[in-house]
Write a structure and sequence with these properties.
The complex is a heterodimer of chains A (about 350) and B (about 170).
Chain A (H helix, E strand, L loop, with lengths): L2 E6 L11 E7 L2 E8 L7 H6 L7 H5 L6 H16 L5 H29 L3 H22 L8 E2 L2 E2 L7 H22 L4 H7 L7 H6 L5 H5 L6 H4 L20 H24 L19 E9 L2 E9 L5 E7 L1 H7 L1 H4 L5 H11 L3 H5 L1
Antiparallel strand pairs in A: 1-2, 2-3, 4-5, 6-7, 7-8
Helix pairs in contact in A: 3-4, 4-5, 4-11, 4-14, 5-6, 6-11
Chain B lengths: L6 H12 L3 E7 L2 E7 L3 H11 L4 E10 L4 E9 L6 E9 L4 E3 L8 H12 L2 E3 L47
Parallel strand pairs in B: 2-5, 6-7
Antiparallel strand pairs in B: 1-2, 3-4, 4-5
Classes of the chains: A alpha+beta (about 350), B alpha/beta (about 170).
């Protein structure tokens, strides 16, 4: 049969943003895939070079807008490491609690929209119902529902309101049985299994070569999590598992994310137990200046390794500021995952990468 | 199987093999930081990848240093089996920023090198597909070069922010 080039996107519901995939089709089978990016490019890095260190925090919200808290954290942590600023104990605990809640919210939105891609609309509604509760919790601490800008270099902007920790506890108690409810719509369901098992296989050696990270890497069976393997903050104090997949297909990536929500619940519960009172922000100078030097600092965001490379020249603005977005590297592995599968599977495979185009394009 | 290597060991290994190529070398924050010229960047990367077993290229970023009349490509390399990290900096002359691509070693370098080419104008020899990646194909110039000028990009004047005055575009 004659082969045909077809555009998927830039406006396509399953691309979750603006992404164009040029697919070479042989009938219904994908033979080749060329991604075209840059539709959301705003040169985040050039903006960063023209802002003071503190002023960049709101821009980091807009990178991965589904996990803004984690982006704030990653950026602040890079600056704190560069300037050697200590962080108060209470702020460390609150960062872990907020960060893991954000991971739950981010995985929920992934699970919901992934269900939508596969035609599972009920799952979408259920996941958004629970995500809404996390957003309410974040709204209570920061006043925002999506772009929080809540972290500061040296800690947090504010302490959490009274009774907030009890609210978190109540949310976790409510949330844990919901996970089993999702299972009834996903793992227990034959259509879901048939759609995603054995599709979009990413071999472990490819995953490493393409520098995939997060659930993509773990789905391929590599037990690698920066929270355990290169600990930052106070993650070394908590006890949690790192779920991994077996064959590296879409199912494994789904299952890793599903299990990670459980582990996040475990971490938050432990953090709630021993959170100390105290200040949440170290005293830092109004005009922050970083010493001459550079740093590559990385954290495990819900999507994988989020790195910030900052070159400082001693002034109050970074000389060079680069964001190593996890989905940028994860998406680059798509051309090796797609060939050989059907067009309908392409939607599932792309969904399993969990892309956020604002982060890919920066 | 190579045992656990500290940053000092890595540095020592690279120095004993490529002593003549290295401009500066130090250990900072547990990372081996090495600065090299552009001539043998591929060989050094291959040594790191094949013989030291550092299989994970975290990040590849370009930096523009007009004061030194040079550009820099920074490879942040780590391993999933080793705790140490490597920061390899390759310096290239600014008027001829060309160095060899490391795509054969790490596939992830493909998009990172395209980005460095797109935003900084660094060219990579033997790259399979060196096109712009984030900007459109007809874009002129490379925005992250320090002397890049564009009428749409006007820095907010910091010093003369008086109430009631409107920031006017300044042209170069």
């Amino acid at each position: 049969m004659e082969e045909m080039w077809v555009n998927m996107g830039p406006q396509h519901p399953s691309t979750h943003g603006v992404l164009r995939l040029l697919l070479k089709l042989d009938g219904e089978v994908v033979r080749e895939c060329i991604p075209y990016l840059g539709y959301m490019h705003r040169c985040h890095e050039k903006i960063g070079e023209n802002r003071a260190y503190v002023q960049i925090i709101p821009y980091t919200d807009r990178l991965d807008y589904l996990a803004s808290m984690y982006n704030n954290w990653a950026y602040c942590l890079a600056c704190e490491r560069l300037m050697e600023i200590p962080i108060p104990e209470r702020a460390e605990y609150l960062r872990v609690i907020i960060g893991e809640l954000q991971r739950i919210a981010s995985h929920l939105i992934w699970l919901g929209t992934f269900g939508l891609d596969l035609g599972n609309f009920t799952l979408f509604m259920w996941c958004f119902r629970e995500r809404e509760m996390v957003l309410d919790l974040f709204e209570a601490v920061s006043g925002q529902r999506l772009n929080y800008s809540f972290m500061r270099i040296g800690g947090l902007a504010l302490d959490v309101p009274e009774g907030w920790l009890a609210d978190v506890k109540a949310f976790l108690a409510y949330f844990k049985p919901r996970l089993l409810e999702y299972d009834r719509l996903t793992t227990d369901q034959i259509i879901w299994q048939k759609r995603i098992q054995g599709v979009g296989i990413l071999k472990p050696e490819d995953a490493i070569s393409y520098a995939c990270s997060g659930p993509m890497l773990r789905g391929s069976g590599i037990r690698w999590d920066l929270r355990r393997d290169d600990p930052y903050g106070i993650y070394d104090r908590f006890d949690f598992d790192i779920p991994v997949g077996v064959s590296g297909d879409v199912w494994d990536r789904f299952w890793v994310r599903r299990r990670e929500m459980e582990e996040s619940v475990k971490i938050v519960e432990q953090a709630l137990k021993d959170i100390p009172p105290g200040p949440v922000l170290s005293p830092v100078a109004k005009k922050l200046r970083a010493p001459v030097g550079d740093i590559y600092s990385r954290v495990e965001s819900p999507r994988g390794e989020l790195g910030h490379y900052i070159v400082a020249d001693g002034s109050e603005r970074p000389y060079r500021y680069k964001v190593r977005a996890p989905t940028f590297a994860n998406l680059s592995a798509l051309p090796v995952m797609l060939p050989g599968y059907m067009v309908a599977d392409a939607v599932a495979v792309l969904g399993s990468v969990d892309i956020v185009l604002c982060e890919v394009d920066r | 199987m190579i045992g656990i290597m500290t940053a000092e060991d890595i540095l020592q290994q690279i120095q004993s093999r490529f002593g003549g190529e290295i401009r500066t070398a130090e250990v900072r924050r547990g990372e081996a930081c090495v600065t090299i010229g552009a001539d043998r960047n591929y060989e050094i990367c291959r040594f790191i990848r094949e013989e030291l077993g550092y299989d994970y290229l975290n990040c590849l970023s370009g930096v523009d240093w007009p004061t030194d009349n040079e550009m820099e490509v920074v490879y942040a390399i780590s391993s999933l089996k080793q705790p140490g990290k490597i920061m390899l900096r390759a310096r290239v002359p600014r008027d001829e920023p060309v160095l060899r691509s490391v795509v054969p070693l790490w596939a992830t370098a493909n998009w990172h090198e395209r980005e460095a080419y797109d935003l900084l104008g660094i060219r990579f020899e033997n790259h399979p597909d060196l096109r712009r990646i984030l900007l459109s194909e007809d874009w002129i110039g490379h925005p992250l070069q320090k002397d890049y000028q564009d009428e749409r990009f006007v820095p907010y004047p910091w010093d003369d922010r008086k109430p009631g005055t409107v920031a006017r575009p300044t042209t170069a």
